[in-house]
Amino acid sequence: MNLINTALFIIIYYLVFSLIKKNKKRNENSLNGPFALPILGNALQLYGDKPHYKMDELKKKYGSIFRVYMGDLETVVISDWEIVKEMFSKNFDKFGDRVKAPTTKHFSNNYNNLTLSHGDNWLEIKEFLTNALKKTKLICFNQLLDDQVTQLLQVFNNYADAKEPFEPRYFIQRFSLNIIFKFCFNQDFSFDGISKKYDQSINKTEVGKHGVGNGKRLTELLELIDVVFEELAVNHLGDFVDILKPFFSLYLKYKSTSIYEIRNIIMEEYQKHKESFDSEKPRDLLDLLLQEFEYNIENDGSKCPKKNVEKIVGILIDMLMGAVDTTGSSLEWCILLLANYPEVQEKAFNEVKSLNKDRINLCDRSSTIYVNALIKEVLRYKFISPFGIPRSCSEDCYIQGHHIPQGAQIIIHFRGIYFNEEFFQNPLDFDPSRFLLNNDSSNTQFVPFGIPKRNCPGQSIAMDELYASISNILLNFKITTVDSAQIDETEVFGLTSHPNLFNVKIEKRN
Fold it and tell me: Domains in the chain, start-ordered, CATH in brackets?
């Protein structure tokens, strides 16, 4: 009986302590926020498929910076770009690291990638990747991109000839994955076929010759990436409730195995490159990374240290995940919005047509200001990452008079910025022309690839991919809805947001 009473006392004490800790202000400059429950915090309040919309309601009540609790983790939510810049740029030393949690540790292989690493480890990985990317002109990226755009246009052409409804996701994912695989591993895949089923069968029989470059392996990889993003999309209490973290870590280790399978695929490619590596003739990003990580088998036969192998694999997984789910989703959104807004599509088509060219190249970007504005507006109107990747506060500090406690998670509420009338006139409207105004605050508030110093290192690749594909699709095809009704624009929320599956009708321009 005494044991039961003791257990009840401990439980009650823990609940009361948690309740007081979450709701008591530390000082007069502490952030305001909604009432937080013991253990759960505001998890129930934010639960659902659109937590970024619920953040809008909290923003109206508590202002552009407030606090919520994700379980035991105090979270600062920011909807003011000036505060974001002061934190992430001027005070990078305090807000440069990511949040440590079982999920981030598991999917980054103990923080051995660029996206989720910390401190000196992040600085080292960033330096190596930045130096490698500076040399990518050695691997003829522009020609690589042009070849993949040609294959994507052929798919559009096949569907136009067949007069079949076109569901773009599968082919867009393949297009993005193809580019990044060619860029990283000097491998690509056939893009034949007028349907997903037919396309897969073509690859299985004709292209399945080596490595990842076969249809079955490609399909497997796409499915694994989808599973990983589905797992990352869920806010697990095991990440935020302290007493659950050890148990959740064990669960991830033994039950969440998709990331292990992706890592094994990348390791296979690493081993192949290691055997044929020539520092004088880099073929792809992996070769350039091997150079940067001082892998020199010609001079002294030394092997790349295990910790560096893990970092290289982590970087390559980052590149794959970013290409398929962020760049790919942006292109998918663009196709949907072109179908829903034919007047925008026609204006962009007339601009590319006026160049009197059969093919639009990256060098034409300065002559297509409306297409550039269209891409920006897609990235604003259907921002891919609702809250970005959270950062952590390393020490108690004050930002514009607000007390930010050590250990707090910091997230950017992008909807609160991109749909703020103070920054974007008529923000609920899809209007590319807003980015044509040089004095429009839209241009200064628009940062789709994050804030330096920790912005996306692959942003130039992503923008090149979007421009090359969208401009040439516009030039060659008219995209319309299947039944003349607008396609549903409701996003599927996750770590990244994407549209529900949809079909469009493809017609040739010529």
Answer: 2-99+116-508 (1.10.630.10)
